Amino acid sequence: MTEATDLAERAGDRDPRVGLRAVAALRKLLEQLEAVQVRNARNYGWSWQEIATELGISRQAVHKKHGRH
After folding, report:
1. Could you say which of 1, 23, 50, 59 has the lowest number of CB atoms within 10 Å?
2. In sequence order, which residues have a C-beta less than 8 Å from that of residue 42 and are 6 or more positions away?
């Protein structure tokens, strides 16, 4: 996961432009990783409630975000 490590390092840069761009890229990467793991959990038969519990959000929120995929 070199990309994530590099981005995390740049997120702490003193230059706000570098730091903010890294934060935006990390946010995008995190969204992609979450989508992959939600699909994985659903493929294993997990309920929306089980997924929501692990993500620390409501069942409705996780279903709204990932239910149509």
Report:
1. 1
2. 51
Look up the pTM and report it.
Answer: 0.85
Tokens of 11: 């997120």
Could you tell me the maximum CA-CA distance found in the chain, to the nearest angstrom? 45
User: Collapsing DSSP states into helix, strand and coil, what is residue 68?
Assistant: coil
Helix 16-43, helix 59-66: angle, nearest 10: 100
What SS3 class is residue 16? helix
List alpha helices for 1-69, DSSP H. 2-11, 16-43, 48-55, 59-66
pLDDT tens digits, residue range 7-62? 999 999 999 999 999 999 999 999 999 999 999 999 999 999 999 999 999 999 99
